[in-house]
Amino acid sequence: MLHHRAFVKKSKQGKVQKVVREHYLREDIACGSFKCEKCDRAVAKLEREAAEYVVIDTNVGLQSIDFLENEAVDNVIVPSTVLQETKKNNLSVYNRLRNLCAAKDRKFYVFSNENHRDTYVTAAEGESPNDRNDRAIRVTALWYMKEVPGTRILLLTNDAENRRRAKSEGILAASTREYAEARKATNPMLVDLVVASSVGDSNMDIGAEGGRNSKRQRIYEEHKLMSDITVGLKQGRLHQGTLRVNMYNPFEGYVSSESMEEEILICGRANMNRAFDGDVVAVELLPEQEWRVPSRNLPSSLAVNGEDRSVAEEEHDEGGLEEEVGAGVAQINPGEDYGGAPITTDSSGRHPCGRVVGIIKRNWRTRGYCGSLRPIAKEKLQMGMISCLFVPVQRKFPIIRIATRQAAQLMDQRILVSIDTWEVDSLYPSGHYVRALGPIGDKDTETEVLIIENDINTAPFSVEVHACVPALPWSVSNDDLSDPNRQDLRHLSICSVDPPGCKDIDDALHCRKLDNGNLEIGVHIADVTHFLKPSTAMDEEAALRSTTVYLVQRRIDMLPKPLTEDICSLRAGVDRLAFSVLWEMTPHAEIVKFDVTKSIISSKAALTYAEAQSRIDDRRLHDEVTESLREMNRIARILRQRRADAGALSLASPEVKFELDTETHDPLDVGMYQVRETNQMVEEMMLLANITVAKQIEAAFPSCAVLRRHPTPTPKMFESLIKACNAVGISLDPSTSKTLAISLDTAVKPDDAFFNKMVRIMATRCLTQAVYFRSGDVSKEEYRHYGLATPIYTHFTSPIRRYADVLVHRLLMAAIGLRILPDNMTDRSRMKAIVDNMNYRHRNAQMAGRASVGLHTLIFFKDRPTVADARIIRVRTNGLIVFVPKFGIEGPVYFHSNSEEKGGDGKVQFALDDQTQVARSLDGSLRFQVFDTVTVSIRVEESQGHRRKLVLALCQGENKTGQPMTMG
């Protein structure tokens, strides 16, 4: 049956167009029940033995996905109307719902009601799209009542009006709460998963009176309607931007808006007005007399351990630290840093302040928030369903109120909670319990927390993905050997140089002398795209994951292990497929010519950086691999100097290395990672390959090449570092990468060997983040990579662990005529989504790795209180931020004295000189300046509810009463 659907739409040019589409209706669509004799059993999922089938509406699909994922909910019919609307409103929830429907162990069936002759409905005159969709779902429920007689059909909806209409039409209907309450005897946990409609009245329906409790007073202002926001933005009264919340205070943040030169400071609970980090908000500026100076205090010591937050502290603590902690640093609170980029103030030092008046786009996580319950009185734990306060592990998120029957069992657990709503009459957002993660402080539990917090996908690869992987054992085939487009390079003395224990080896190198006196240098990269075909299940999964994630004790792969550790890995002594870049160079590293080719290689050695360095340094060794390494190292020195002369930055990162117990994987030792000359050698070769390939693919595909750029930092980003250096007589000029490089080279103190590295570490944090992009999306001037001082750059050398490199390999194959470029790589909107996801996943992988370092640092120091030297990298009026070079630890130290423990107030007042970066005690007995060395104690403390935290305290320096200064 053919049906025509007509509607009007407005084009991007503003023209109104009438669109008529053919809509085919069928009557042979299966109901999906094993009870039905007419339907195809091959597609059936609904059990014959089930007494009840559940039909869900869009409301439940969108808002109760955690509820649906519980195994107690099954034999569920998902109308295609629900899937379509869910996809339109929330892609993340849609994917979870699709996975439920696809899971073989779950009984979720998608019924194509929009294509069935008996269940398709047209919109009545004056009927809204939502009302039409609700009616379509009720018609589906009625159809099932006729199709499978004898089976109870239940419409599950949290919309009170939809339930009322369903019951008037003879359909059995219930809310998720009613459904859960009816089953709490056998599945008590189901009640906890019910979406909270409002705090204070958990039985209130979403559709009832807007979900408000009329007995409570309003705490927040109502958000403006979208129509009012649009008018305000056009008139310039409102400003749109994304809210970035202070890492230690959920009621202080900044909004960057294209309509304002300065960032807008949002301070206090009322002005934040229920906005979350990442929300796109509409902001109204406060009168200038209400603008304020940003805090120069460290966050309170309680803030370092987010779970110790009291209600009073959360309401009144508006302090925050605005400096960023660098990658690889073991921090006091794993996974968090100390704020964001520097802010701009007016000439008086006051900052533009505003208030949130509307939410344009919510950023509540569909995956939920990790944390724990605030301890409550034992007698209250025995009261059945009780209201509890949940404290997220990340302090930038506010406390969340949930209702649960399991409070006693969950009190010492990390749990996952989802947010449902935040009403104007509720101090806190309301949410629901999703699941327990494990005991607080347990290594596996805390690792699971950091994985969830950073949105890392750890799900096993599907059967469809594994089906794309060649069977093991795998070897190079005769077809590969006879391929005219693949060079046989197995005779070359190729080797790999990697960290110890590396199994996913995706690059190898060689260098040999040519008959004409020149050199041939080769970089050989695993030929992942030979196995990873476009638009396959494995390719789609790799695009979603985008990167391999490296934790201290674990690797979370982008691709299945048979590929990463065997088939693609360039292991020693086996033939492997590669994508090679070969340069002919003069002995002075001048490139004569280069070639890019598919190849077959056989690595002669898989070396660690230490082993390669040992070979180079041992003058008794003259084998081909060693001589290759020596000559390549010599060339790398020349290339490195040439880049430095062009303005490339030589920065430093306080990367931490752990020695782990082979059985428990607990840390046995921790220290700064040692960088050898072989590290720099490999880096230079990879940079050369990446730059060479970037030029090649951009020339061939100027509008769709996948490149990587590093935006030039603004002068404001270096202000604090310039002040710190000026205070100790060092001049820093960041106007260009070259002037900055020269400044860093001259930033030395003869009596302080670590000073230069400290400055380089701090300079790293002043820079913007490098990002992936499509060449056609920005001007050529914006291609530049500031840190590397190169006009063009990409990632080609790690396709086993980065999806960006996979895309670059496909571009390169097309550029040299080996393959046709896949259609989706010229689709601008699709590629923008892929590139955005790559940047998001890359950032998350960095944060997860950093959090893992912090977690293992906490475990290491649990029974090892230690004293060590630290360097001051920031001074504040109430404390310092210090860096401990020996362990790579960074964190706050507060100005308190032990007199507090003896009845005194424990406060030591300090004055901060912002120009000289000096903090002086008001009594003149103490003075601290950036870059000073202090001695600190490092220990782990247990706080309220058995929460552990790493504590740094000053051991050096006395106040005038002779009491040592310590962290409170």
Automatic annotation (TrEMBL):
- The record's principal subcellular location, in a coarse class, is cytoplasm
Q: Which UniProt keywords apply?
A: Cytoplasm, Exonuclease, Exosome, Hydrolase, Nuclease, Nucleus, RNA-binding, rRNA processing
> Which cofactors is this protein said to need?
Mg(2+)
**GO CC terms on record?**
cytoplasmic exosome (RNase complex); nuclear exosome (RNase complex)
Cross-referenced SMART domains: PINc, RNB
Name under which the protein is recorded? Ribosomal RNA-processing protein 44
Q: Where is the PIN domain?
A: 52-164
Domain (RNB) ranges: 486-818
Annotated region (Disordered), positions in chain? 302-322
**Record family assignment:** Belongs to the RNR ribonuclease family.
InterPro entries in the record: Dis3_CSD2 (IPR041505), NA-bd_OB-fold (IPR012340), PIN-like_dom_sf (IPR029060), PIN_dom (IPR002716), RNase_II/R (IPR001900), RNase_II/R_CS (IPR022966), RNR_Ribonuclease (IPR050180), Rrp44_CSD1 (IPR033771)
Q: Please provide the Gene Ontology terms (biological process) for this protein.
A: nuclear mRNA surveillance of mRNA 3'-end processing; rRNA catabolic process; rRNA processing
Q: Which organism is it from?
A: Picocystis salinarum
Where in the cell does this protein reside? Cytoplasm; Nucleus
List, in alphabetical order, the Gene Ontology terms for molecular function in this entry.
3'-5'-RNA exonuclease activity; endonuclease activity; enzyme binding; RNA binding
| Superkingdom assignment | Eukaryota
